[in-house]
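in:
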């Protein structure tokens, strides 16, 4: 994934200004900044969900927004859990998983502290549990680039270390590139990631 002077404005307001970076498989980046600094917009540009007004966002030389969604080798976990409401948590995670074996999925549920909730639907669990299921879906996807937008927003503090461990072990195993948006200045060190600092305005 490569950004070359990528910028995005909405009307007169500049959300992302002149960002150049490259992230390769096995590399980790934390996009750090306060609310309104453009973290979500930057991740949406990387996911091909927004088209830059200037500059480019490419994967293997192709504009990501031009790559059909089904072909895009990118998983995106939204800031607000986006699960299919009519499906159980298990089916939500299994749907796009690269390894759909019961053993592999059970292990993920266990590591995320979601064992026993597999058959619940998203509206039958707490916001934190839904966010953990949403995280599992991204981590299970087997995609080569994983984008996580504020993955700890709804997660209790006493569970954060467990979830960092889960992200770390899965990413280590898959060799994917990881980009995490956060406002927590301690996260880059905890994830062994480099940092991109964004500011408001
Ligand atoms: P963050 O995720 O760091 O809170 P955002 O990327 O959500 O930052 O927002 C950055 C700026 O872009 C904010 O000023 C926000 O209001 C604006 N913005 C984001 N998305 C839109 C949109 N779809 N339409 C208009 N303005 C937007
Ligand atoms: Mg955001």
């Amino acid at each position: 994934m490569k950004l070359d002077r990528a910028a995005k404005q909405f009307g007169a307001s500049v959300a992302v200004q002149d960002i150049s970076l490259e992230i390769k498989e096995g590399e980790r980046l934390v996009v750090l900044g306060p609310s309104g600094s453009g973290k979500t917009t930057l991740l949406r540009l990387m996911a091909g969900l927004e088209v830059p007004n200037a500059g480019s966002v490419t994967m293997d030389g192709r504009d990501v927004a031009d790559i059909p969604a089904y072909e895009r080798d990118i998983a995106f976990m939204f800031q607000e859990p986006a699960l299919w409401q009519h499906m159980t948590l298990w089916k939500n995670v299994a749907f796009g998983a690269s390894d759909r074996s019961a053993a592999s999925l059970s292990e993920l549920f266990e590591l995320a502290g979601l064992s026993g909730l597999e058959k619940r639907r998203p509206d039958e669990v707490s916001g934190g549990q839904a966010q953990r299921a949403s995280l599992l879906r991204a981590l299970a996807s087997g995609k080569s680039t994983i984008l996580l937008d504020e993955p700890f927003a709804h997660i209790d503090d006493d569970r954060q270390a467990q979830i960092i461990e889960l992200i770390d072990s899965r990413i280590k195993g898959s060799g994917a590139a990881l980009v995490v948006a956060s406002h927590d200045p301690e996260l880059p060190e905890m994830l062994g990631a480099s940092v991109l600092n964004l500011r408001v305005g």
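note: The radius of gyration is 16 Å.
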